[in-house]
Amino acid sequence: LTPKPELTSDPAGAALTGNTVTLTCRMDLSTGWDFYWYKHTPNSETKKTETNSYRVKIDSVSDGGQYWCRAGRGNPVYYTQYSDALPKAVVMVRPDERVFRGETVTLRCDIKWGGDTEWTYRWEIERTNYQYKNSVSRFSTQEWNISSVDHVHSGKYTCTGQMGTQSSQRSDAVTLTVS
After folding, report:
1. Which of 97, 159, 161, 171 has the fewest Cβ atoms nearer than 10 Å?
2. Do residues 119 and 162 touch, judged by C-beta distance below 8 A?
């Protein structure tokens, strides 16, 4: 199985103009790897480093966008998988992913490494209720409060963020189960 590195940033949540952000390509591999950094698309190489960190100075909006990393070594080069991209959407559920009918549930979409910019959010819900099995809903608020959940709200929730032409990576799915 080809290893897949994890891309993290420091600071974790700020990608504002004027900041310097350090991206780190984390993985549990032996030494001797070079690290490859990509911006906007995974196949457009921007930088090769011998260490697993890369500093990005955010001088303008054009320095924003999605970033990926992967590692490689040897000749010909053997590459790991691409990391997930930053920025990435993350879904949080309060109080829990497993709730009872009638409870209040809040779903929130946050953009990891997205800065304090104005994002537009898109949610997708894959319903698990047998009556709504294949229906998908879309709505555009960052936070969604369901004051009295019912079985119809059970399903897999994902979100993405959009800001102009830039979009975040889709979040991992969160499964809401209503008993």
Report:
1. 97
2. yes
Tell me the whole-structure pTM to 2 decimals.
0.67
How far, in Å, CA of 118 to CA of 168, rounded?
Answer: 13
CA distance 178 to 129: 10
Instruction: Please report the DSSP string for 38-65 in residue order.
Output: EESSTTSEEEEESSSEEEEE--SGGG-S
Judged by DSSP in three states, 61 sits in helix
* Tokens read off for 78: 């053997």
Three-state secondary structure call for residue 74? coil
Contact by Cβ (8 Å): 98, 113: no
Pick from 118, 125, 127, 116: which is nearest to 151 by CA?
A: 127
Instruction: Summarize pLDDT for 9-34 with one digit per residue, the tens.
Output: 877 654 555 677 788 999 887 788 99
Report CA 73 to chain centroid distance, whole Å. Answer: 27
